[in-house]
Amino acid sequence: MTQTLLSFGHGYSARALTRQLLPLGWRVIGTTRSDDKVPALTATGAEVVIFPGGDVEAALADATHLLISAGPDADGDPVLNALGDAITRIAPRLEWAGYLSTTGVYGDHAGGWVDEATPLAPSTRRGQMRARAEAAWQAIPGLPLHIFRLAGIYGPGRGPFAKVRAGTARRIIKPNQIFSRIHVEDIAQVLLASIRAPRPGAIYNVCDNDPAPPEDVIAHAAELLGVPIPPAIPFDEADMTPMARSFYAESKRVRNALIKDELGVTLRYPSYRDGLAALLAAEG
Prior knowledge:
Blueprint: E1 4-8, H1 12-21, E2 27-32, H2 38-43, E3 47-50, H3 56-62, E4 65-68, H4 78-90, E5 96-102, E6 113-114, H5 125-138, E7 145-150, E8 152-154, H6 161-166, E9 171-173, E10 181-183, H7 184-196, E11 203-206, H8 214-225, E12 232-234, H9 242-246, E13 253-254, H10 257-261, H11 272-283
Parallel strand pairs: 1-2, 1-4, 2-3, 4-5, 5-7, 6-13, 7-11, 8-10, 9-12
């Protein structure tokens, strides 16, 4: 039987996993809300279904594996709202299901460390919606669910270089502000490792080894490019959108020991320094 991944919200991370699965003979079906995105997704080798609106039930009937990266909103998880009964029916025959969440569910820890056993205490609306969505997926009986709490994602097309080159990058300084990050290719290898060694009920933090202040990352990107380091701007004086400001509401260092000890993952990009150097090299 062909292994078939049905990916809801077939975005940046899911496409990276697709690049790992297709050479192994997998079939990948990805959903998108927009007809405009179908050609680009098809070009990645995935079959594409419009959701909502398309024949998702047929895709569910074929799925052996499920990946959910579509984000929740004020009304809850959009996949469960539309297909909860259908997913409950197929749950016992699925081999693996993965839900892509966020380390934002842990809330603010004033720069301290968190791991998978840390109680959830999200302080942002985004984090609160993710925590509720996690619980909703966990409540489905028989679903072989694995939750992946992702740190800040970067990779090809998503890095600081464009803004640094354009002179629009800013080094926002907020004392003791620490973020964890993860390269998208490392997300893909963690997901593949879990698919190969499923443990229903598992929760994994997905981040690199090097939590760091955001201003350090911008400064390092400028150094790699050989351009002046952007000036420092105190957080209280920075002109920021409410969304951008909300990212500074929480500060924490995220432990990643479980993906190494249990899944045997060796990160390709253990630090943002490794990841940024590789992105720059790939640009030629």
